Amino acid sequence: MGSTIKDIAERLNISVSTVSYALNGGPRRVPDDVRARVLAVAKELDYRPNRVARAMVTGRSDTIGVVPPEVSEDVFLSPYLHLALNGVFNEAGRQHQDVLLFTRCSETEREEMASILVDGRVDGVIFIAPHFSEKAVELAMSTHAPCVSISGVPVEGVLTFCVDNEAGVAMALQHLYDLGHRKIAHIAGRLDMQDAIVRLQSYQAFLRSKRIPYREEWVGMGQFMIEGGRRAMNALLSLPEPPTAVFCANDEMAIGALMEAYACNRKVPDDISIVGFDNSPGTAHVYPTITTVAQPISDLGAAAVRALKQLIENTEPEESPIFPAQLIVRASTSRPMEHK
Amino acid sequence: MGSTIKDIAERLNISVSTVSYALNGGPRRVPDDVRARVLAVAKELDYRPNRVARAMVTGRSDTIGVVPPEVSEDVFLSPYLHLALNGVFNEAGRQHQDVLLFTRCSETEREEMASILVDGRVDGVIFIAPHFSEKAVELAMSTHAPCVSISGVPVEGVLTFCVDNEAGVAMALQHLYDLGHRKIAHIAGRLDMQDAIVRLQSYQAFLRSKRIPYREEWVGMGQFMIEGGRRAMNALLSLPEPPTAVFCANDEMAIGALMEAYACNRKVPDDISIVGFDNSPGTAHVYPTITTVAQPISDLGAAAVRALKQLIENTEPEESPIFPAQLIVRASTSRPMEHK
DNA sequence: GGGAGTTTGCGAAACGTTTCGGAAGATCAT
DNA sequence: ATGATCTTCCGAAACGTTTCGCAAACTCCC
Question: I need a surface site. Which of A66, A86, B103, B125 has the fewest CB within 10 A?
Answer without folding.
Answer: A86
